């Protein structure tokens, strides 16, 4: 029988929702057990959150000072060691997972499976290629462990509740490299919902016109309690920071509501929102590609339409 080890993603003592989405993918494999591995300097709060995720058999913890920050070079040897006896090792297909998974796969001597969208069998998966224009079915060698990243936009988060899996410390005798060290983490601070896990997202594109004009996007987002995103064109133009970019080279998201304002709809951007529930597009160009995928489209000047929309919202 198969056993899946999920590597928990966390930051500043909080478990990232991507971990619960990876659990959903793991459960689809129909394994004998789904274990979550927490590597941190302080593991208790993170492990407690992981233990409440439905479908988790147990939570394994490795508390070391070296694990205070998610350095791939430091985490990978520990994960490879902990993976002994597991048929699958899953990580979310986030910046964290994309950084760590290739090193783990290399240490285990296997080819990584990236962006798992669905599980067709214990070792058969689908994943996107060509910027999401095609879906390919891949089959991993059952003789070796599967190291895979899970496309979080394609999976719902497993429920969290009264369930409490046992938490067990794991002793790993592994030498850690010293050539990589943590310097600092620079990230945007915001009271708005996290872009990658938000249920509602308002995004602006080149059509917004300037960094100052982007305030209209922030205002609408705050009005409806949404996260803020942007197209690559808006990021490249300096309207917003890089961490807000949505698309093939940005964040892949699946909100229930996605409002695209002043975004033409290049294929690279559409790749990042293909799993969204309802897509609303506002653009003055009636021929913009975004209208081909939008559920609701408004053609007109965004600087007139958005204030009217805000007024209607009350």
TrEMBL record:
It holds the Pfam family ETF. Its cofactor is FAD. Gene3D superfamilies: HUPs, TPP-binding domain. Binds 1 FAD per dimer. GO terms for biological process: fatty acid beta-oxidation using acyl-CoA dehydrogenase. Residues 4-174 form the Electron transfer flavoprotein alpha/beta-subunit N-terminal domain. PANTHER family: ELECTRON TRANSFER FLAVOPROTEIN ALPHA, ELECTRON TRANSFER FLAVOPROTEIN SUBUNIT ALPHA, MITOCHONDRIAL. This is Electron transfer flavoprotein subunit alpha. It comes from Fulvimonas soli.
């Amino acid at each position: 029988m198969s056993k899946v080890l999920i590597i928990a993603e966390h930051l500043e003592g909080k478990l990232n929702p991507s971990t619960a989405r990876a659990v959903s993918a793991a459960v689809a494999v129909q394994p004998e057990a789904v274990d979550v591995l927490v590597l941190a300097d302080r593991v208790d709060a993170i492990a407690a959150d992981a233990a409440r995720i439905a479908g988790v058999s147990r939570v394994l913890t490795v508390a070391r000072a070296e694990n205070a920050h998610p350095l791939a070079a430091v985490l990978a040897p520990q994960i490879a060691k902990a993976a002994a006896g597991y048929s699958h090792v899953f990580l979310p297909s986030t910046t964290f997972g994309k950084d760590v998974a290739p090193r783990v796969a290399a240490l285990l001597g296997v080819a990584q499976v990236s962006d798992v969208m669905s599980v067709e069998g214990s070792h058969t998966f689908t994943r996107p290629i060509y910027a999401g224009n095609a879906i390919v079915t891949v089959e991993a060698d059952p003789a070796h462990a599967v190291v895979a990243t899970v496309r979080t936009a394609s999976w719902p988060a497993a429920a969290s509740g009264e369930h409490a899996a046992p938490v067990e410390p794991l002793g790993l005798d592994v030498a850690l490299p010293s050539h990589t060290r943590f310097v600092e983490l620079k990230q945007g601070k915001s009271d708005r919902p996290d872009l990658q896990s938000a249920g509602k997202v308002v995004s602006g594109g080149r059509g917004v016109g300037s960094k100052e004009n982007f305030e209209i996007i922030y205002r609408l987002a705050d009005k409806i309690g949404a996260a803020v995103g942007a197209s690559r064109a808006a990021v490249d133009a300096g309207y917003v920071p890089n961490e807000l970019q949505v698309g093939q080279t940005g964040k892949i998201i699946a909100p229930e509501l996605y409002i695209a304002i002043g975004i033409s709809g290049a294929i690279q951007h559409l790749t990042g929102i293909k799993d969204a529930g309802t897509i609303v597009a506002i653009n003055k160009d009636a021929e913009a590609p975004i209208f081909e995928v939008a559920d609701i489209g408004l053609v007109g000047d965004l600087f007139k339409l958005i204030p009217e929309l805000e007024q209607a919202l009350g």
